[in-house]
């Protein structure tokens, strides 16, 4: 019985070692800057551990969660029309701060979802990258300037 269990375990480990596919590392909505920096470091550690991996960041535009200090409540607001472009610009700054080669990370404007979402993916060399999975075909926008992302570094 132990021999069978050991054989199954070894076969599963062996097949996992050769399974070459894109893997989602994390998915999250709009979070605090400190949480984003922690997630960034985890993602970069994953990429540093395997030089044959590329990173993909899929950014979905959607409603943003905000907090009203006076009412002590969270609420959602519509995004601005330039939010995806501004988020990608700011995320490139966030990642360049760690002196990680940005040519190993692809930033993708992935379309629209009900709420703002970012996905971190690792992709081995020669493997098809992840395809965006938007849930909405269009989004209503609010007027004004996009919000400052992580204090604009």
Description of the molecule:
- The chain has 3 helices and 5 strands.
- Mean pLDDT is 80; it is low at 9-17.
- A hairpin with a 4-residue loop joins strand 2 and strand 3.
- The longest helix is centred in the N-terminal third of the chain and has 17 residues, at 2-18.
- Helix content is 31%, strand content 30%.
- The chain has 153 residues and is of the alpha+beta class.
- Strands 1, 2, 3, 4 and 5 form a 5-stranded mixed sheet that branches.
Brief characterization of the structure:
31% of the residues lie in helices and 30% in strands. The protein is an alpha+beta fold and 153 residues long.
Tell me, briefly, the overall form: globular
User: How far apart are the first and last residues' alpha carbons, in Å?
Assistant: 58 Å
Q: How many individual helices?
A: 3
Unreliable sequence segments: 9-17
Number of strands: 5
Cα radius of gyration in angstroms? 19 Å
Based on secondary structure, the structural category is alpha+beta
Could you report the average pLDDT, rounded to the nearest whole number?
80
Tell me roughly what share of residues is in helical segments: 25-40%
**Largest beta-sheet characterization:** 5 strands, mixed
Succession of helices and strands: HEHEEHEE
Beta-strand content: 25-35%
